[in-house]
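Following up on my earlier message about S-adenosylmethionine. Here are the inputs again, as you asked, copied directly from the submission form:
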Amino acid sequence: MSAYRFVGARRRLIETIRAQGIEDLEILRLFDDIPRHLFLPEGVWNRAYQDHPLPIGYGQTASQPSLQALFLQVLRPGPDDQVLEIGTGSGFYTALLAASAGRVYSVERIRELSIRARRALDDLEIRNVALLVGDGSIGWRKYAPFHVISVAAASPGVPSALVDQLAAGGRLLLPVGTLEEQELVLVTRNQTGEVREERALDRCTFVPLLGQYGWKEEPGEE
Ligand code: SAM
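Thanks, got it. Here's what our run produced:
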């Protein structure tokens, strides 16, 4: 079955991720267990296990695997956690989260990507994921609060709506900066409700978060 293809390339990807300082075996195992190629357009399957962002259509990209591993290492989703993901994209990172967390709520603004991600998740019988098409910069209030919030698109600032939806003891990670370059920002809420922001975990370049608390869309843009 095609889920078991590219075994050697998967192992090499895991070594690459490990060489970037991700030592957690639980995280590394996820990249072996979940076939990234099945979340990508067939035209890029031959590059699916390289440590690169890849085009998924509609001007969007699937994020770099080592960066996704770093997100998991910082966010540490646990089996009882409710997770909010902004920017479903291909759905691969959604699947990584779903394997680690209790339930994942993932918002994507491009309908076609959300439909494709749903199909890949269903094919792999990943059931603990709810998908929504819409503006994730405002979160998903109906299911708040979340123990973990993970944003895969660049924001000009930390959206207050997402901070509001963070549970006590919760962690929010997102790229903040200009359209050209961002730094990862970790926002935590402690048990007494106090919110802290930690900057400069790493520099990166993500596609823009478009929406109410992100960058404003140009008229006529999708
Ligand atoms: N983790 C995904 C993956 O590996 O496939 C990354 C997807 S990509 C880097 C970021 C996604 O965020 C894009 O699919 C884009 O359409 C989406 N996006 C941008 N602004 C958004 C918003 N306000 N709400 C929801 N999704 C948004």
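One observation from looking it over: The first helix runs from residue 7 to 19. Hope that helps, and feel free to reply on this thread.
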